[in-house]
Design goal:
The chain is of the alpha/beta class. Helices cover 48% and strands 11% of the residues. Helix 8 packs antiparallel against helix 9. The radius of gyration is 20 Å and the shape is globular. The two termini are 27 Å apart. One of its GO terms (molecular function) is oxidoreductase activity.
């Protein structure tokens, strides 16, 4: 027990140093719109289906200035994001008109393996570079824009050579002005991330991963991102909490399913998080987003609730958490400490 406590103490001490570095990098190198507005939280559009345009409009009107989508009809309606963007750019807003340079738009290339076979948005028989180019052309047409702010590989390819080939094509699209940044998603292999980073002419600017216990909250990968100026984006940060609460009764005997489908199943219900949130006069959800920002993460919010949208966009302007508060939340996430209320 003493050895375990000493080990945790050393880990916590290292964590404090890491937090300081993450904060400095988060302040120095956030994502930003072309107009210079920092991006600290992103609206995610997966699984919105026919409500996509409506929800994107609501998110932007609530204050979101970054939108994440993908050229993957299976889970995203990228064209409806484009409809919403076009409408928003044509409408006067409170505080003045919204311009294209005021919105950060991120999309993804999804390999054939990740597509619905009946709705692949490019020629599946084309060469891999041509698939990437066709996907990019489709994204620009869907989104009704001339460029995107970020293009992300939705998930690693089957082989290292295929990953290299995709990355070279991404670099070509970057050079052509079709995207301002390139990055990766669903990459939990630090060796692959390091290899692509070391070999790239245009290095990854973004890594978007699930932020949950089954991946150890990506601590090693996040450390690499911090050290190399890669912005770490998190999805499933909170979104599946609410779904999981309703299905927990039915999945209680299938704990592995519970773990897979929830990001951080115990965090929002811990007395520690609820007490800190109450002291600060904010919701537990806002507190958790503030925590992620303070440790150098740019979270995605996929809420469909307009009240939650309004709450979420306030988070980046809230006072940062103290080192003690961050440590308390990390203890819940990393070590399962903290009782549920």
């Amino acid at each position: 027990m003493v050895k375990i406590l000493l080990k945790r103490g050393r880990e916590n001490a290292k964590g404090r140093e890491h937090i300081i570095l993450q904060k400095k990098l988060a302040e120095a190198m956030p994502l930003s719109t072309l107009s210079g507005r920092p991006v600290h939280i992103i609206y995610g559009t997966a699984w919105k289906k026919e409500r996509t345009a409506e929800l994107v409009r609501s998110a932007v009107k609530a204050g979101f200035r970054a939108i994440d989508t993908a050229c993957q009809p299976k889970h995203y309606d990228e064209a409806q994001v484009g409809v919403a963007l076009e409408q928003l750019l044509q409408e006067p807003q409170n505080g003045g008109a919204i311009r294209r340079e005021d919105i950060f738009v991120q999309t993804k290339f999804t390999s054939v393996d990740g597509q619905d076979p009946a709705r692949v948005p490019y020629d599946r028989k084309a060469s891999l570079p041509d698939q990437v180019r066709q996907s990019m052309a489709r994204s620009l047409a869907n989104l009704r824009v001339d460029f995107v702010d970020s293009l992300v590989l939705h998930g690693p390819m089957r082989t290292l050579d295929e990953n290299r080939l995709v990355w070279r094509t991404f670099e070509e699209l970057h050079a052509a002005g079709k995207t301002k940044r390139i990055g990766l998603s669903n990459c939990y292999d630090l060796r692959l991330l390091r290899t692509l980073y070391d070999e790239a002419h245009i290095r990854p600017a973004v890594l978007q991963n699930r932020f949950h216990a089954e991946t150890g909250h990506d601590r090693d990968i996040r450390a690499f991102c911090t050290q190399n100026g890669i912005v770490y984006q998190s999805f499933w940060t909170l979104n599946f909490q609410f779904y999981a609460k309703f299905v927990w009764v039915f999945l209680a005997k299938l704990n592995y399913v519970w773990k897979f489908w929830t990001a951080n199943p115990h965090a929002l219900h811990s007395t520690v998080i609820r007490d800190i949130a109450k002291k600060r006069g904010i919701t537990p959800e806002q507190l958790f987003y503030r925590f992620t920002i303070d440790i150098g993460i740019t979270p995605l919010s996929g809420t469909t609730n307009t009240a939650h949208m309004a709450h979420d966009v306030l988070v980046p302007d809230m006072p940062p958490l103290s080192a003690e508060e961050i440590g308390q939340i990390e203890s819940i996430l990393y070590y399962g400490q903290g009782k549920k209320s």
